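agent> step 3/5: call structure_predict on target 'Aminotransferase class I/classII large domain-containing protein' (marine sediment metagenome).
agent> reason: downstream docking stage needs a structural representation; sequence fetched in step 2, passing through unchanged.
tool.input:
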Amino acid sequence: MPKFQPFLMERWMSKFEQEVDFNLSESGVHPILLSELLSDDPDYINDLLATDLNYPHVEGIPELRENIAALYDGATTKNILVTTGAVEANYNATCTLLTPNDEIVIMLPNYMQIWGIAQNQGFKIKTFHLLEENGWAPDLVELDKIVSKKTKLIAICNPNNPTGYILNENEMDSIIAIADRVNAWILADEVYIGAERLRDDETPSFYGRYDKVIAIGSMSKAYGLPGLRIGWVVAPTETIEDIWARHEYTTISATMLSNKLAAIALSPKVRPRIIQRTRNFIRQGYPILQRWMDSHENIFSVIPSQAAAIAFVRYNLDINSTELAERLRKEKSVFIVPGDHFGMDKFFRISFGLPPDYLTSGL
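tool.output (status=ok):
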């Protein structure tokens, strides 16, 4: 059994994010109030008060799965499994498709959960990179070279965490063609769809473009509802059944109230309002961050994120990124994510999808 690999970023955040004055580490927008979520219809509250606090449908209540399926071309409720956050979706999906010594190809930089799962499960890891010099576009030549007939899974994050880069249509098609050539699955972490900063159309999903895609979604990032702990998997029906079987070992189900509240949030009546709220936070917050960086000439540089409430900032200081983040936490009660957690020193990830006064004070 390999030595256990902790999830460095989540360990860091779980220990300290509740203890600081200014938490600039989160990758989602400022969380929504329950009263704001339920503001469209007073009957929502009455319905929730009449809820039997039993187990929900283990795979997710029908209304929630219907609302999720409506977001994906060609999906039905049988293609949907509701999970306890995207982390459970990622974990069970990965462990369904792969066994020890299987080959996985992972996009870097990335949310490092799947990399850590691969380390702990004994998968053979290969990586391909987003290139800073190309505006964080993927190195598809590298991807094409490293895949092999042994590659079982290509794991990507689109829009990307931590860079906020969005793959264009040609890049998506190229990744699909490479996967198809070696008969590999694509696991697409798509939790930032809806959190676009520069465009009003939503980032397209990989689901429906290739028959071996598992798409992962979440209420945490683009919806500002991380406390619901609701995620989901979208996949072929047989694959959903296989992942569902593992779901019964990990959490059995998300809660009844979380299912109901997520169903409200994803309803055609409410979802557009929440997505607009998310984009307002992102579009108002980024200029504040940019002005702050500009005021510190020759210290910070960044490729502006296309989506998500985060920026991956390069800094020109003679200090390791973890040491920098530790000093900010201890000396200023400001919390950011060091680039070391993505395997890239001299960077940090910082949130800007926050109330302007809070963001300005934290900076």
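agent> step 4/5: record observation. The first strand starts at residue 22 and ends at 23.
agent> proceeding.
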